[in-house]
Design goal:
60s Ribosomal Protein L30, Chain: A, alpha+beta, 5-stranded mixed sheet, globular, Translation, Eukaryotic Peptide Chain Release Factor Subunit 1, Chain A, 19 strands, 10 helices, Nucleotidyltransferase, domain 5, 3 domains
Length: 393
Amino acid sequence: MSELLEATSPKALTPAVLRSLAGITGKAVVSVAIPTQRATAEPQQNALGLKSATQRIEQQLAQRGLEPHAAGRYTGVLERLQADEVFWSHQLHGLCVIVWDDGWRAVRLPYPVEARAVVDTRPHLQPLLPGVAEQGMFYVLALSQRHVRLLRASSVDVAPVDLSGLGIPARIEDALPDEDLQSPQLHARSGGAGGRMAIFHGHGDSGEFERQILDKYLRELARGIDDLLADDGRPLVLAGVEEVCAQFREHTGLRTVLADEVSGNPDDALDAELRDAAWPLVEPVLRRPLEDTVERFEAHHGTGLALADLPEVLMSAAMGRVASLLVRSGAERWGRFEQTEGLMADRAQRQDPGDENLVEQAIALVLDRGGHAYVLEADAMPADADLAAVCRY
C-alpha cells in the first residue's frame, strides 16, 4: 500500500483509515512528521526538513540492526519524496510520512506539527489525531443555481474539493440532459469554454418548471455528496438561500448535515468567507465529543471506569475496554508491554533500540479496538498524567 493523502480530503484521513494504520506492526516502522509552509517561493525549502529526518531515520535503522539494503526500503521512500518537486509545491501546514515493510503513506495536514523522526514497531499516530473526524475538520456545501462548491475546512484553512473530477455535477447543466432543460421559458446558451448555461426566467409557468429542474439537480447532487461523504463523519454545513438548502435536505441522507446553515446567496462569497461564517456553527459540534470524554472521565474518576495509571490504561486498551483516550500533547513513555506479561519496562526516554513508545502503543490499541483518541495540551488534561482513559465497562 503506497498512498498520498490529505487530512482534509474526502475519504482520506477518516477514523477507518486511522484504525488501519493502528493495526500496522513490524520489526521497523518509520514515522516522520515535519512542519511545512503552504505557499513558498522555494518549495524545496520544505524538503529540507524531510532530508534531516531521513538522516536520523538511517541512524535508528542501523541501531536496530538492519543491513543497508534492508534499510534502503524505508529510506528510499523518503528520498524519492525529497526529490519530487511537484509533491513539495502542494503542501499544507504539516506533513506525516509512515513507512513499513511493504507500504507507505504520506499525509498532508492543515495544521502545524512538531518535527519528529522515529523508528518503532508501529506507526506514531499522535500527529494525525487532530485530523480525524472528531477534531477540527468540517465541510461547507455552497448551494446555488449558478455553481455549487464543496469546501473542506478547519479553523485555519480551507480548500475546494474538485467535484467534477469526482463525477459530481457542480452545475445544473452538467447534471441534466438537454431535453430536461427544454421549456418555452427556459433556454440553453453557451456558457463559455464549450459549456452550456441554463437561463431561468422565473415567472409564470416557468417558475414551477424551474423548481422542478432545481429539484432534479439537487437530487443528483445529494446522491453524489452522500456517496462521497458516507463514511467520512465530518460535519457538513450548508450555505445558500433557505429554499435551496431546504430542498437539498429533503434529498440527502447524511446524518452529519448541521441543522443550522449559512444563509444567503453564496455566489460572491470567497471560500475563506464561507469558512469563517460556518465556523461559529460547527465549532460546538466539533468540540462536543472531546468535551463529553473529559466530562465522563471526571464523572467516573475513582470508579474503575476512568484510568490514568499507565499500566492500567495499557492493559485495559489491550482488552478492548477503553472507549476514549485522552493524550497529553507530545507525551512519550518508553519500554515494553505485552498483554500476557503486563508492563515490563517504563522510562521517560528510550534507552534501548528495542524500546517501544508506550503512549503510541496505547493509542494504537484503542483505535484498533474501535475506540477514539484525542490530543490535549497538558493544562487541559483532566488528570496529571500522560494518558487518561474512559472505559466501556
